[in-house]
Design goal:
- With about 675 residues, this protein is α+β, with helices and mostly antiparallel strands.
- Among the domains are: about 20-170, Glutathione S-transferase Yfyf (Class Pi), Chain A, domain 2; about 170-230, no CATH class.
- It has 26 helices and seven strands.
- The chain has helices at about 20-45, 50-80, 80-100, 105-115, 120-140, 145-170, 190, 210-215, 220-230, 240-255, 260-265, 275-305, 325-335, 340-345, 350-365, 445-465, 485-495, 500-505, 515-525, 530-550, 555-570, 585-590, 595-615, 620-630, 640-645, 655-660; strands at about 175, 200-205, 365-370, 380-390, 390-400, 410-415, 425-430.
- It has a five-stranded mixed β-sheet with strand order 3-4-5-7-6.
- Helix 20 runs antiparallel to helix 21 (about 555-570).
Length: about 675
């Protein structure tokens, strides 16, 4: 990392981290009221709107409220004080209400339609097209009564979504065990961070630093079963009714706007465009994965029966359906010589972080500078400024330690959208990798968490590089949502690359680097269970679509989840599981959870120029990737960005070859992954 004294001054934007709950509420009221007044004045005084005198000031006003909403939703996800989280949620909802009103603003819609775009540049034209589309989809063409109803519906949808996510964050579950003897098989650093209480009991929570190692290493199947049951019932029963209300309101919103259902509405502005195209895509992927997934499951089941000859089936707590599977780990150790439990010794957090930074410095020419802003929301948070040459790209934060009330998964939160000449982008990685009882200096990471760290950092790089465009609607925030996972899924590959891992995988206690043969065996084992994991993703994508592509009247969400899951997947869910109660993607991604599978197809093709060069650190390909994929943000459609980078249309070939690794040759189907069925 570089010396922070070398930083050039740049505008990062106002960042009031230490506001009280009352101050947050007051700020939200002020910002929204001032902006509503200024938008009304702008529309009143611009009878002949121009780019300079109408679009530019309107864009900056929208940016102001978007910043308010991003700041509020982020603090709602991470702040340790419940009162501040509540006020932050209210600030986020105030920003949402502003945009819900704006999207039905007929005057703004007509003013944008009157803009003369004859001689404007491509990014400006594209930004205006997307703004008009958002207003049309928001209901700006409807009559006053319908517009008022749409605003009311959207406001309630935002409130219910926040209620659902707040329940997921706060309703943590746990199991208790009778001392260390119940934790046989778990790593020593895990045992030392989970001492017995005064009553001899040890509490294991559903937070990821607790959950993932148990599912991967605990020899006692009963412990794995109990903990998985608690994990699959987080926010149950509270979120059953909340989700029902969300589905009903979104269906009413879509049908009021003239769509047949919410899935049709939600997918219209994505790359895939239509639900029927999504169904055809998912079926194509599932068809290719079912046979190898079945073979994978039979292989793991055979390994289980060596321990339990009378076992009738492979249970969900036995395999890689969740986290790193217990018997998958045994096979990986016995057949490939890879013990992920032992890998933890070589993956201390600080070494992983610094190795990741070093890789980015080499690949992309950027530099990281540790900074210490005042009043951050928690003492475990790290802050960094990023520069490229003499220019500051932006700032990011690492919040990696779980705590009560904090967002429970892993995500890259956009906190501030960057606009050239206005403000720089700011983002945060919010993950739960590090045990709060273990100092960061000595904390070890699961290998799967290292991959997740790289995945989320791929989002972060996208935000940093793209946050210098001309308009809010050309930032990464407005990239098609079924493309947005492609850069993050691509960046995972560096965490799987032996040459990259060798940079930082080192045991700080002994100074020993991870042996080269272990790295090669780890790579050789990567395909194991891949078909099972991705068939499960296909099943989840189909579930999210089917929950939203119909009237929710009389819909039993748990039964629907189970029915669709069983249709695609090969191992049934336990009757007591209620997985729809803690699946946050149902509020954000809604009907388009297929994003992860679709983006993976694209990501595998984005990787192919690196593979053709035989290295993931080729500077020419890395520079082209940044220039053609990351920097443009949403200045052009994603399909065009990928075509420019690859020099052709993307297709299925790289994905299908990757999904068949380790299998007998199958004739390739070829052809582009068209959005048509």
């Amino acid at each position: 990392m570089s010396d922070p004294e070398t930083l050039v001054t740049a505008h990062l934007g106002e960042f009031p981290w230490s506001l009280s709950a009352a101050d947050l509420r007051a700020r939200a009221v002020r910002v929204v009221a001032e902006t509503e007044h200024e938008v009304a004045e702008l529309l009143r005084t611009q009878p002949e709107p121009t780019i300079e005198h109408f679009l530019t000031p309107l864009d900056r006003l929208l940016l102001r409220v978007r910043d308010l909403g991003s700041h509020g939703s982020f603090l709602f996800a991470v702040h340790p004080d419940e009162a501040v989280r509540t006020a932050a949620r209210e600030a986020s909802e105030a920003a949402d209400r502003f945009f819900n009103h704006f999207r039905v603003n007929g005057d703004a819609y007509r003013a944008l339609q009157r803009l003369d775009l004859t001689d404007v540049d491509g990014p400006t034209r594209y930004a205006v097209e997307k703004m008009l589309r958002d207003l049309r989809r928001g209901g700006a063409e409807k009559d006053a009564t319908v517009r008022a109803h749409l605003v009311e519906l959207n406001n309630e949808i935002d409130r219910v979504s926040n209620q659902y996510n707040g329940n997921v964050a706060q309703l943590e579950r746990s199991v208790e065990v009778d001392g260390p003897r119940e934790l046989v098989g778990l790593p020593t650093d895990y045992l030392s961070s989970h001492p017995s209480g005064p009553d001899g009991k040890i509490r294991i929570t559903t937070r990821y630093p607790d959950f993932n190692p148990v599912m991967a290493y605990a020899d006692r199947a009963e412990l794995r079963r109990r903990l998985l049951s608690e994990f699959m019932n987080r926010a149950f029963p509270e979120n059953i009714a909340v989700l029902d209300r969300l589905l009903a309101q979104r269906y009413e919103l879509a049908t009021t706007l003239g769509y047949s259902d919410y899935a049709e509405y939600a997918i219209e502005d994505k790359m895939m465009a239509r639900p029927e195209a999504v169904r055809a895509f998912l079926e194509r992927v599932a068809t290719g994965l079912r046979a190898p997934a079945h073979a994978d499951i039979e292989r793991v089941f055979a390994r289980k029966r060596r321990d339990e000859p009378s076992a009738a089936r492979l249970e969900l707590w036995d395999s890689s359906f969740f986290s790193e599977g217990y018997y998958d780990g045994k096979l990986r150790t016995e057949e490939y010589g890879v013990d992920t439990k032992k890998l933890r010794a070589y993956l201390p957090y600080r070494a992983v972080r610094d190795g990741l930074f070093s890789l980015c410095e080499e690949l992309f020419g950027i530099r990281f500078h540790r900074v210490a802003p005042e009043g951050l929301w928690h003492p475990t948070v790290e802050a960094y400024d990023v520069t490229l040459g003499d220019e500051r790209l932006g700032r990011f934060f690492l919040d990696l330690v779980p705590r009560p009330g904090k967002y429970g998964h892993a995500a890259c939160f956009g906190i501030r959208d960057g606009i050239e000449g206005v403000q720089l982008p700011q983002s945060a990685l919010v993950c739960n990798f590090l045990d709060p009882a273990t100092p960061a200096d000595t904390a070890r990471m699961q290998y799967s968490d290292v991959v997740t760290f790289f995945h989320e950092f791929g989002h972060l790089l996208h935000a940093l590089f793209s946050g210098h465009g001309p308009w809010l609607y050309t930032t990464m925030s407005f990239v098609e949502w079924d493309f947005v996972e492609a850069p993050s899924q691509l960046f995972e590959e560096w965490a799987r690359d032996p040459a990259t891992l060798a940079r930082f995988a080192r045991d700080p206690d002994t100074g020993e680097g991870i042996p080269a043969d272990v790295l090669e065996r780890l790579r050789a084992s990567a395909a194991m269970g891949r078909s099972v994991r991705w068939l499960r993703q296909v099943a989840l994508a189909a579930i999210s679509l089917e929950l939203y592509d119909r009237s929710p009247a009389g819909l039993d969400t748990t039964a629907t989840f189970r029915e669709v899951y069983d249709r695609y997947f090969l191992s049934p869910l336990e009757p007591e599981y209620h997985p729809t109660t803690a699946w946050g993607h149902l509020t954000g991604y809604s009907a388009f959870y297929y994003t992860y599978v679709w983006s993976l197809v694209i990501a595998r093709d984005l990787l192919s120029p690196f593979l053709e060069r035989g290295t993931l650190t080729d500077p020419e390909i890395a520079a082209r990737y940044v220039r053609e994929i990351l920097v443009p943000g949403s200045t052009r459609p994603a399909t065009e960005l990928v075509r420019t980078y690859l020099g052709r249309e993307f297709d299925f070939r790289a994905f299908e070859a990757w999904s068949r690794e380790g299998l007998p040759p199958i004739p390739p189907r070829g052809g582009p992954p068209s959005a048509s069925p």
